[in-house]
Amino acid sequence: MCRLLAWNGAPRYLEDLVFVPEHSLVHQCRNALICKTPINADGFGMAWYSDRPEPCLYKDTHPAWSDPNLAQISRHTKTGLFLAHVRASTGTATSRNNCHPFASGKWSFMHNGQAGGHMQFRKRLDTMIPDAYYNHRLGGTESEAIFLIALGLGLDADPIGAVAAAVQQVEAVSRENGTTPHMRFGACWSDGTRLYAARYASDRHAPSLYYRVYKEGVIVTSEPLDSDISAWIEVQPNRALVVEGGEVMDLPFTTALAA
Amino acid sequence: MCRLLAWNGAPRYLEDLVFVPEHSLVHQCRNALICKTPINADGFGMAWYSDRPEPCLYKDTHPAWSDPNLAQISRHTKTGLFLAHVRASTGTATSRNNCHPFASGKWSFMHNGQAGGHMQFRKRLDTMIPDAYYNHRLGGTESEAIFLIALGLGLDADPIGAVAAAVQQVEAVSRENGTTPHMRFGACWSDGTRLYAARYASDRHAPSLYYRVYKEGVIVTSEPLDSDISAWIEVQPNRALVVEGGEVMDLPFTTALAA
Amino acid sequence: MCRLLAWNGAPRYLEDLVFVPEHSLVHQCRNALICKTPINADGFGMAWYSDRPEPCLYKDTHPAWSDPNLAQISRHTKTGLFLAHVRASTGTATSRNNCHPFASGKWSFMHNGQAGGHMQFRKRLDTMIPDAYYNHRLGGTESEAIFLIALGLGLDADPIGAVAAAVQQVEAVSRENGTTPHMRFGACWSDGTRLYAARYASDRHAPSLYYRVYKEGVIVTSEPLDSDISAWIEVQPNRALVVEGGEVMDLPFTTALAA
Amino acid sequence: MCRLLAWNGAPRYLEDLVFVPEHSLVHQCRNALICKTPINADGFGMAWYSDRPEPCLYKDTHPAWSDPNLAQISRHTKTGLFLAHVRASTGTATSRNNCHPFASGKWSFMHNGQAGGHMQFRKRLDTMIPDAYYNHRLGGTESEAIFLIALGLGLDADPIGAVAAAVQQVEAVSRENGTTPHMRFGACWSDGTRLYAARYASDRHAPSLYYRVYKEGVIVTSEPLDSDISAWIEVQPNRALVVEGGEVMDLPFTTALAA
């Protein structure tokens, strides 16, 4: 399982959250607490929004703590909306294309969890990716497949419903394949304006997900960044968040949001 | 277009051919002669056979001349059968998974050329890869697809016919897609005993391919390694080679070898 | 010899100069014109100034054209002052620490050229670096040594004189060592406000250096970025530039600026 | 602190020790037991001897477990004498040049430990490296400095005494600098015939070092590779080993071996 962190609010340096806090994302690379795999050293990635509509993607296969470019860029880049991720592989190779976040057009997406046995049904997942998005299929993870399937299911029109539907479809394939856990899903995604997040599992073990509201904005993360635990709100399983303008909406994570 | 080089014969150091000659493969990275793209710096790879049945694969995304590990390994590894490749991308990304050679079981395979427009029909190529070999689909090149399709068509039973059939199938997709050149194909492949090679194109521009017979073995290469041009025999278009025990068989490159 | 490019003026995207023009820096990686080595694929680097006093350094050993992170960052980062460099090694290894620009505090520095035989007198160069700056000695190039020696000679107080003095000292060592060319020096450096540049050689072959004044700012570069040659002004040997506020001062490149 | 492993005996595949055992070196990257830093993911390296006098060096900055080339080469390379190392940095950067083992001529060397405060007196260490070996000073670690200083002190003539003298010299600098621990030293080195090792510290905390004698050869390692603890012999502090022909000599680690 991986670790993830997102910010939506006033512009701030990436390093303020990625490197600096007591329990920053880079710290979690070596010492994740609420996590079965305490080491997340199979690459990392960040997507942030500048004044272009599409995000800037920076990803690499080194452990986050040992990349001097990451430290530099985090120290010099300010943004009001970003996603950051450190990876612990569940089977697929350590390659830049398998690092999160993934991006297509204005959208970025990152995932913590897995579809059990996904290495066995990758071809089927590939087939489920619409032709229009197939050239964005750069790696082999089920996470990237969920994102591209969601794009095909109408992410623009229904940002939560489309992801829920994609998760449901991929879970169904895992279920049919008979491999467990069918689906573990903690994720954040963004269109450059709103930040979305969801927590879900096909069993009792939904990946941890928290948020905290500050005056200047909102952090969503797989584990609290400091020991002031009471300030962090745990997202419940089967729930999704929409973060915008300092406000957090907590909604059901279903395929029929609009309905 | 890329540059490739293969050896089948007495054990020798990789560096004897990859680094040392007047016009070695690493030299060709910067100064290819018979080639539209004189720079081949989008990664490299080697597959060599030791005393295990499957080949050893060493591939990386740096230019071959700047990888100190490659220089070391080439200087210390002796083998009687190897394939080596330097890459100039025709569109797909510079990633290890897109570097040649590719390998599956005992087989290794490398390609110089392209199927025109392959980025547009990658999903279709992926669908043509048999389920049994899909987990060997690591990158996005049409070259790797040809190899995996050939495996599904019976590479073990008919090493030349299966590759010819795979090339034909991929060419058909390119033709249907209306993108040229439909197929340019210079390639070497091996099962650990024999070395195979073929030269073919759907138009008049089949990628160059040469071989030379020495007392100790045979070199197959996309361009001669020295200026003793008369010693190098040009493979003709639509022909395939089988190299074994110092002998070279020159055969038609057709799908019906056995027939 | 390497290729270099710098901008001082209105904030603009890095990619506008590094990737976009007819003859951009990334284009020059493969097709340098005014250069003995047309391939500059031994790494690259950029230093840009944001709202912190010290520059942001992004350097890597891949060819500039094949790094997807570089393309992303160049597309999303705007700055009014930056240095960019593509490297063709003159002997030292391809490693991030040997890539330009170098940085220390507010200063950044990049160099095109060489001190002949520098691999033979590296220890002596190291000894010339003041203790206070020795922890910034990360690689083995004579370029980095010149920069750190200049820092020790008072770069803050006399930005041109200190570099000229450092060049003179290193040239003296090369001269004593009897290796030619003793010194070839085309360089840009910056304190985050002004952009400095100089052109010099101990023989007749000073590395090329040009600048062009636009309404929005000034480009300094080792070769013109477009075919409108008349708009580019060639810096003469033994001359230095100070660029600030859209103005270019052309001064002698001597150790006694203040005198 | 790092983890290290060496073999001297009958030729065997590198992977038999580096990847396969219960507690292999690659396993120790994530789960070192007898070690303050359980994660050793700041690069790795191997030096092995083939039929050339000098060793083959393969080093990289990725965690050992995520490098597909390392897995391939370890699976296909057989050797009777090798050194392998996984690194946890004590301050110097994650770069290939700072990865162990180091090599010069026929010699290879790797180290687990540190000279306290070495970042503060690197210039002094550099000055202690003889001119003849200065071009082998590629990185910035005190480990590499100890090796090159030992070469200058006569490693060929007195392989244990020269290392002990180099350790003493570097410890003296640390002592003078007032930084602790002055010296922690667990190391292996080889001339291609014999394998040497030593365990030492300026305080009570000498880095752990063990060996085990098999019918086919001898393993020296920073921690046992399996749970059959009684079979592993702990090297005592201030002792050195000479391994040759299946025999282990246990000697004092002093500067005056010959005396």
UniProtKB/TrEMBL annotation, chains A, B, C, D:
Entry superkingdom: Bacteria
Domain Glutamine amidotransferase type-2: 2-259
Keywords, alphabetical: Glutamine amidotransferase
The organism of origin for this protein: Phaeobacter piscinae
InterPro entries named in the record: EgtC-like, Gamma-glu_amide_hydrolase, GATase_2_dom, Ntn_hydrolases_N
Source species taxonomy: Bacteria, Pseudomonadati, Pseudomonadota, Alphaproteobacteria, Rhodobacterales
Ribosomal protein is among the record's keywords: no
Identification of the protein by name: Glutamine amidotransferase
